UniProtKB/TrEMBL annotation:
It comes from the Bacteria. This is DNA alkylation repair protein. It comes from Lactococcus garvieae (strain Lg2). Gene3D superfamilies: ARM repeat domains, Hypothetical protein (EF3068). InterPro entries: ARM-type_fold, DNA_alkylation. CDD domains: AlkD_like_1 (cd07064). SUPFAM superfamilies: ARM repeat. Pfam families: DNA_alkylation.
Length: 215
């Protein structure tokens, strides 16, 4: 596949070492900075978008490749094609989120789940189910999938998914709670302040600190 060849042809060993260290040496990298990756993939993504249907075989292939840039390419592709997502794709997103999981890919995938929710293709019960999943990355997506929703945020859902995760010792969950509340505080600071007041004793210090940033 030409895009794979192009990525590998621009590999930079020194940059790769730094990228690998940043993600705690969990993944191999080619050493492509984000601007380089996006420039290399621009034509490829434009061409694939003309198909107007999501190529899940491509995504599975990219996710199976060793170097992390290929998972990033899969995420870039899915974001570009998100309007073609359907409720039946939710299990596929789940599989991606629970395979080679770390915050950078998971946080790309929560935008896709958010799109499905906002478009009405999935409903609140789907998100509530994810909010109590045994995998904390799935719970993180449930908490953060409404980022950027502003006035159309479903506050009942937001409150429920956060309450379902109060008392967690997991850093990435408590960080997600803080981010979700901080983001919504830009739209409705009084709601967030009230939520913090009601749940102060159960919220982790990290969540409180993040959520209070703009209050």
């Amino acid at each position: 596949m030409k895009i794979v060849e192009d990525f590998r042809a621009h590999a930079d060993t020194e940059k790769a070492k730094k990228q690998e260290a940043y993600l705690r040496d969990q993944f191999k990298f080619l050493g492509l900075p984000t601007p380089v990756r996006r420039e290399l993939s621009k034509s490829f993504l434009k061409e694939k978008a003309q198909e107007k249907v999501i190529d899940w075989q491509l995504i599975d292939f990219l996710w199976s490749e060793e170097e992390r840039e290929f998972q990033y390419l899969a995420c870039d592709y899915l974001r570009k094609m998100k309007k073609y997502l359907e409720a039946t794709d939710l299990p596929k997103i789940y599989q991606l989120a629970t395979t080679k999981s770390w915050w950078e890919t998971v946080d790309s995938l929560d935008e896709l789940v958010g799109y499905l929710l906002l478009s009405g293709k999935i409903k609140s019960p789907d998100i509530l189910k994810w909010s109590v999943d045994e995998n904390f990355w799935i719970r993180r997506i449930a908490i953060d999938c409404q980022l950027g929703f502003k006035e159309v945020t479903d506050t009942e859902l937001l409150s429920s998914v956060i309450r379902n995760n109060l008392g967690s010792k997991e850093f990435f969950i408590n960080k997600a709670i803080g981010w979700a509340l901080r983001d919504y505080s830009k739209t409705h600071p009084k709601w967030v302040a009230h939520f913090l007041s009601e749940n102060e004793e159960k919220l982790a210090n990290l969540s409180l600190r993040e959520a209070s940033k703009y209050l």
